[in-house]
Design brief:
The structure holds two protein chains of two kinds. Chain A is of the alpha/beta class. Chain A has one domain (about 25-125). Chain A has helices at about 35-50, 70-85, 100-115; strands spanning about 5, 15-20, 25-30, 55-65, 90-100, 120-125. A six-stranded mixed β-sheet of chain A has the order 1-2-3-4-5-6, covered by helices on one side. Chain B has one domain: 2-Layer Sandwich (Heat Shock Protein 90). Helix content of chain B is about 50%, strand content about 25%. Chain B has helices spanning about 5-20, 35-50, 55-75, 115-125, 130-145, 155-165, and strands at about 25-30, 90-95, 100-110, 170-175, 180-190. The chains are: A alpha/beta, B alpha+beta. The interface between A and B is medium-sized, with 22 and 27 residues.
Chain lengths: ~130, ~190
């Protein structure tokens, strides 16, 4: 499968989706001018990946900021991972948040409430 | 402008400057709100806050509120004389910094027939406590759909959650069909 590697900017996140090496990661800041267009290839990639997913997928979110429009698209990504989980694949979401960032921690808790998929919260030092 | 008008104008500029100082306004803008403008204003305010060693949590909250307020204008301000939905909304945007709070204020034109729905939504948000806001946000994220302009209906809820304050708003009539919608949010500097 094609590897997605998007280098982050001050308003778009860094994204790596690499089936072969098992790296699935979204990090940085997300407030793209057009969220739908920005995240479309990611969601399409996940649709394709779902058909031939690895036995285990660890998907990491290491965001420092996202706007409300992005929050909806992040949920769309999580829901695709939930589908995979429901279809018998092993999936683990790792939600990283800066140690002192309660809002980002809470955002992770909220997503964990909404989607039915194994979810791990990981705090780190900036 | 003839000579006497120039003097009047420059006096106006000075008055304008003084009232900005009196109201502790650190940023004021009127015009189209584009993505570039949003980026410029947020990074300017961010670097100012960093220079003044504002608490991290305060900086983050101000950033959140600014982005959502600016996007509200760019997505929802009614643009008269243009049917193009990509036409960036315009309005007034202001940041002021007092001893205890930051204030982020927006103003934009809206059609009168949207006032009722908007008022209902704002009052509903203002009636909720922390837990209620959290549930509303979650539901809206699950059930809400992105509008063609990328709005998720989450901005006001997010502002209320990030500031832990009620949304202060006001409508001023412009003419039969439209009004000016003003919204101001306060972010406490006492982290």
């Amino acid at each position: 499968m094609e590897v997605i590697k998007i280098k982050g900017t001050d308003d778009t996140p860094t994204i790596i989706l690499d089936k072969e090496s098992g790296v699935f990661e979204i990090s940085g800041r997300s407030l793209p001018e057009d969220v739908t267009t920005f995240y479309e290839p990611i969601l399409n990639w996940l649709d394709e990946y779902q058909e031939e997913a690895n036995t285990k997928t660890v998907f990491s979110f290491k965001l420092v900021y996202f706007n409300t429009a992005s929050s909806k698209l992040i949920l769309d990504i999580l829901m695709k991972l939930e589908d995979m989980h429901e279809n018998g694949k092993e999936v683990l979401i790792k939600w990283y948040f800066p140690e002192d960032d309660e809002d980002m921690e809470e955002a992770g808790e909220e997503y964990a409430d909404i989607v039915d998929v194994p979810f791990e919260q990981v705090s780190y030092n900036l | 402008m003839d000579k006497s008008n120039v003097k009047g104008f420059l006096e106006f500029v000075y008055d304008f400057y003084r009232s900005m100082k009196a109201h502790e306004i650190t940023l004021v803008y009127e015009g189209e709100i584009t993505h570039q403008i949003t980026k410029a204003f947020t990074s300017l305010t961010e670097s100012n806050m960093a220079k003044e060693s504002e608490a991290n949590s305060v900086q983050k909250k101000v950033f959140h509120v600014m982005v959502e307020c600016l996007q509200n204008i760019s997505k929802h301000a009614d643009s008269f004389g243009s049917d193009d939905f990509l036409f960036a909304g315009r309005g007034i945007f202001m940041v002021s910094k007092g001893k205890n709070d930051y204030h982020v204020t927006t103003g934009n034109v809206i059609e009168n027939d949207k006032i009722e729905e908007l008022t209902e939504m704002l009052n509903h948000i203002n009636s909720l406590d922390k837990e209620g806001l959290k549930n509303l946000y979650k539901n809206q994220m699950k059930e809400g759909r992105l509008s063609e302009k990328g709005g998720a209906g989450l901005g006001f809820i997010d502002i209320a959650r990030k500031t832990s304050n009620k949304l202060d708003y006001h409508f001023l009539p412009i003419d039969e069909g439209s009004s000016f919608f003003l919204l101001t949010s306060s972010i406490s500097r006492l982290a």
